[in-house]
Please model this.
Amino acid sequence: MAEHVIETRNLTVYYGKHRGIRDVNLLVEKGEVFGFLGPNGAGKTTTQRVLLDVIRPTQGTASVFGLDCKSDGVEIRSRIGYLPGELSLYKEMTGKRFLSTLASLEHREVGPSFRNELCERLDLDPSRKIKEYSRGNKQKIGVVAAFMSKPDLIVLDEPTTGLDPLIQQTVMELVQEVKADGRTVFFSSHILQEVQAVCDRVGVIREGELVKTERVETLIKQQFKRLHLTLRSAPPADAFRMDGVTETSRDGRFVVLEVRDSLEEVVKRALSYGIEDLETQPVTLEEVFLAFYGRGHNGGNHA
Model:
C-alpha cells in the first residue's frame, strides 16, 4: 500500500471574496515526482503555501508526512526543501554565507561536500556576493538551498526559470536522483517538456479546482490520437464529422484528425475512401494540457 506524503481533503482557500482554491483533494505518494500544472492564478502557489503553513485554509485539511499542516508546520518544514517561484535573498551575503545561514536557521544538517557538489554541477561560484549574481545564478542559489539537506520532500515552483538549457538539464537530473533515492518531489513548471520527462503523475488545476490527476503516459493516451490519413480519393467535407473527432487540416486526399472517441468508426469511414497511408503521431503533454483549457485560452500555455 502506497504511503501518502501529501494529502489534502476538500482543501479550500478564499482571499476575502476571491477564490484561491476550492475542494482540492490531492494525494502524493512517497518516492514519486508529482507534477502540478495550471495557468497563472489557477491555485498552484496557494496550494504550496498551505502545505508549508504559510497560509491557512478556509475549509478542509492538509497533511504532509501524516502530520497536520496547521499544528505541525515546524516539523513539516524541517523535512522539506522549498524553491519558491519568487526568491528573496540577502544581497550583501555571499552565496556560501547565505546557504550556511539558511541551514543554521532551519536547524538542518547539510554536508559541505554535497553542497559544494551541487554548486559545481550548477556552475555556481558561491564565493561571490548575491548582489553580483545574474538572475540565473540567483536561481541556482535557490536550487542548491532546496536540495542541499537531502530532504524527504522537495517542493519546486518553476525551478528552471532563468537557467540556460544545460543547467536546466542538470536540475532535471537532480530531480531524478531524488526519486531514485526514494524521496518525493512536488514539481510545478510551465515547461511541459520537463514535466513530461521527469514526472510520474500530474495534477491539472483550473480556476482553483483540481480537474484531473493521472499518470503522465495515461493522460496522454486517454486524451486523443492524431491520425495522418492519405486516401485514394478526396473525402467530402463532412466525412469525419462525428462526436469526439476534430479535423485539423486537409489538402485534397490528405487529412489530419484528432480522435478522442469513435476511432473504429473513423477507420471504417477512411477505408471507404481507400487508405494509402495511415500514421499515428505522438501527442505531447503540452497538447493535452491545451485541450483542458481550450486552444483560445490566453493562459493555456502556462503552468
Q: What stands out?
A: The domain at 4-79+152-220 is CATH 3.40.50.300 (Rossmann fold). The CA atoms of residues 118 and 144 lie 6 Å apart. The radius of gyration is 23 Å. Confidence is low (pLDDT under 50) at residues 296-303.
